[in-house]
Amino acid sequence: MASTFTTRLRDLRLAREWSQTRLGELAGITRQSIHAIESGRSIPSTEVALRLAGALDVPVEALFGIDEPAPPAELVRDSGLGTPLPGRVRIARVGGTRWAYGLDAGAPRGEGLADGMGEPAVAGMVRVSPLPWAPPEPDLVVAGCDPAFGLVKDRLRLEHGIRVLWVPSGSRRALEALAAGAVHIAGMHLADPDSGEYNAPFIQRLLPLPATRISFAIWEQALLLRRGNPLSVRRLEDLTRPGLRFVNREEGSGSRALLERRLSEAGIASEAVPGFLETEAGGHEAVASAIGCGTADAGVAIRAVGDARGLEALPLGEEPYELVIPEHFLQLPAVETLLGLLGRPGLRRQVEGLGGYDASAMGRPA
């Protein structure tokens, strides 16, 4: 399909309430020439374009341009991560396969420009209609729920020029995406209900390939409450009060699993907590945001996001958050650079500065 010449000459002329004759006098060209350009019957020479831009006091590119035909839609593998489709998507290549990831425009550390608009197609595929100004393809795709990873993402871009697509995701879903080959790295914090051991039992069951566990941080999990704790929530039993609005995390998230264990230990049925079965927030920051803006009274998240919003926090315990990397990705330059960055004291201090983190083992094998 051929490119199309476009012009905003008529719009800019009318915005100044000028006639074609008036513009012609100012630009030193005939009214008939202006009419031919505005109607699309004539493409101006460089001299005429410069004269018109000078008369209207705008850049030439504000007057004239080339409307390139949109590339055809393409089918891309569905990662199952991110905001449900249809909607905006990013595209990245992992292990030789192109994957689509739904973008959450409201996520504080989410992505900006999209590669296209995606809609479900045949099973396991997304039909992506490209958008203009698509960003460069990411070098690394990471799924997880720790907001602190945004600091790593920023440092890799600023210091090394490495572009990271960070897809907010609960721990189990991140590990499942890693097993499917849709991400390079998964972040997780899942305790085995039988042994109490973190992460390793789930990796053994769900990941059909050898992988390395890298320590990121030990964080504090807490029951976050509205500023000043107006409902006087002091213990888990208080969550069962009628009228209390609890915001839960999604199925498969480590925070939800932690609360389910704590409720079980206290002899409290999860369905007795108003909102436990009816709500799902996609990440720690989403929980804190809901409580901070008053649409919820309580929820479980890391203490750091509560501190950032001045929320009250009832401690629930500490958990190790780890990065899981398949061994065949360890030699990727972007992964090698990431591992080197995790071992630097400066990054550890940045993460610990968020509050509620112990990053002393960051970058070491778990």
Structure commentary:
Strands 8, 9, 10, 11, 12, 13 and 14 form a seven-stranded mixed β-sheet that branches. Strands 3-5-4-6-7 form a five-stranded mixed barrel. Strands 1-2 form a two-stranded antiparallel sheet. It has helices spanning 9-15, 20-27, 31-38, 46-56, 60-63, 149-160, 171-180, 200-206, 254-265, 284-292, 303-308, 333-342, 345-352; strands at 4-7, 64-67, 74-82, 87-94, 97-102, 116-120, 125-130, 140-144, 164-168, 185-188, 211-225, 298-302, 312-326, 357-358. Helix 6 packs across helix 12. 31% of the residues lie in helices and 25% in strands. With 366 residues, the protein is an alpha+beta fold. A hairpin with a 4-residue loop joins strand 6 (116-120) and strand 7. Mean pLDDT is 93; it is low at 106-110. The longest helix is centred in the middle third of the chain and has 12 residues, at 149-160.
Write the layout of secondary structure elements.
Layout lengths: L3 E4 L1 H7 L4 H8 L3 H8 L7 H11 L3 H4 E4 L6 E9 L4 E8 L2 E6 L13 E5 L4 E6 L9 E5 L4 H12 L3 E5 L2 H10 L4 E4 L11 H7 L4 E15 L28 H12 L18 H9 L5 E5 H6 L3 E15 L6 H10 L2 H8 L4 E2 L8
Parallel strand pairs: 3-5, 8-9, 8-10
Antiparallel strand pairs: 1-2, 3-7, 4-5, 4-6, 6-7, 10-13, 11-12, 11-13, 11-14
Helix pairs in contact: 2-3, 2-4, 6-12
